[in-house]
Amino acid sequence: xxxxxxxxxxxxxxxxxxxxxxxxxxxxxxxxxxxxxxxxxxxxxxxxxxxxxxxxxxxxxxxxxxxxxxxxxxxxxxxxxxxxxxxxxxxxxxxxxxxxxxxxxxxxxxxxxxxxxxxxxxxxxxxxx
Length: 129
Known about the structure:
Blueprint: H1 3-6, H2 9-20, H3 62-67, H4 74-81, E1 86-91, E2 98-106, E3 109-116, E4 119-126
Antiparallel strand pairs: 1-2, 2-3, 3-4
């Protein structure tokens, strides 16, 4: 005898209805769908540009001018005095190359450094109170 013959038909009908009917939250178990949405917001903060370096008046001193030696590069001089207040470059006639003059001004003090082909060739300065 088959096992299904021993189970009453009414019991099979109850099992069939409970498995297909609504579940505890009122939706049919074969149509329940869950949708998750994730939204990502990215905020980028751009830092303000750094202000140009300000040359303190204390860098224009005779002691700092004495540190500048012939044949130093422009970068080495800028490491001592910072960027120049003004600069001017021009070609060197006949010999070739470039002569660049750096001028530093602060209060009553002024320093002038002359480079030939990116090497110090002359320097001078006046220092006020």
